[in-house]
Amino acid sequence: MTETAQSAPAGRGVRLPRTARRAQLLAAAQDVFVANGYHAAAMDEIAERAGVSKPVLYQHFPGKLELYMALLESHVDELVGRVRTAIGSTTDNKLRVRAAVAAFYDFVDGEGQAFRMVFESDLRSEPAVQSAVERATTDSVDAITDTITADAGLDEERARLLAVGLVGLSQVTARSWLADNRRVPKEDAVALISNLAWRGIGGGFPLQH
């Protein structure tokens, strides 16, 4: 999201362009969903935090699930976009691995704790949520698989397994790093994990630089 939850909400009765109002509502909802989870979050609280009436909130989102999905899909798009940008940022494969790892660390370290909705959702039983959460992984894996297939001369199945490993390693270590209160500087953490990944990928397969 481009508008952070810390932005001061416009008061009741203040008219905003539809896109600005939507961003405001999403920012307020982000705070509430992250703090309370889906089930304990209330539309009343979201409207109050945004400084709008409930009818205004329902003009933009017909229900809590639709609001949650709008946020979740935007966060998934953000993560996948970060990974694709990382992979496309250089033709040097060692730097690609580092950039891909950094994409996950930057995502979990972002404002608003968006990663919690993607990786720690309490609504996995909802098919739409499960599909969106799975897309965060599968689309990231797809982006990396294409590069490994092209550069390492592997068939797609083996390249995909390597990509799954890199995504899993990056995601799990990034969340652990954050949970450990960032005791290792982010640049050092990214370097450690990307070097670990590169020694496996770069050492075992004839990647072309």
TrEMBL record:
<feature type="DNA-binding region" description="H-T-H motif">
    <location>
        <begin position="42"/>
        <end position="61"/>
    </location>
</feature>
<dbReference type="InterPro" id="IPR009057">
    <property type="entry name" value="Homeodomain-like_sf"/>
</dbReference>
<dbReference type="GO" id="GO:0000976">
    <property type="term" value="F:transcription cis-regulatory region binding"/>
</dbReference>
<dbReference type="InterPro" id="IPR036271">
    <property type="entry name" value="Tet_transcr_reg_TetR-rel_C_sf"/>
</dbReference>
<dbReference type="GO" id="GO:0045892">
    <property type="term" value="P:negative regulation of DNA-templated transcription"/>
</dbReference>
<keyword id="KW-0238">DNA-binding</keyword>
<protein>
    <submittedName>
        <fullName>Transcriptional regulator, TetR family</fullName>
    </submittedName>
</protein>
<keyword id="KW-0805">Transcription regulation</keyword>
<dbReference type="InterPro" id="IPR001647">
    <property type="entry name" value="HTH_TetR"/>
</dbReference>
<keyword id="KW-0804">Transcription</keyword>
<dbReference type="InterPro" id="IPR050109">
    <property type="entry name" value="HTH-type_TetR-like_transc_reg"/>
</dbReference>
<dbReference type="InterPro" id="IPR054129">
    <property type="entry name" value="DesT_TetR_C"/>
</dbReference>
<dbReference type="GO" id="GO:0003700">
    <property type="term" value="F:DNA-binding transcription factor activity"/>
</dbReference>
<dbReference type="Pfam" id="PF21943">
    <property type="entry name" value="TetR_C_46"/>
</dbReference>
<feature type="domain" description="HTH tetR-type">
    <location>
        <begin position="19"/>
        <end position="79"/>
    </location>
</feature>
<dbReference type="Pfam" id="PF00440">
    <property type="entry name" value="TetR_N"/>
</dbReference>
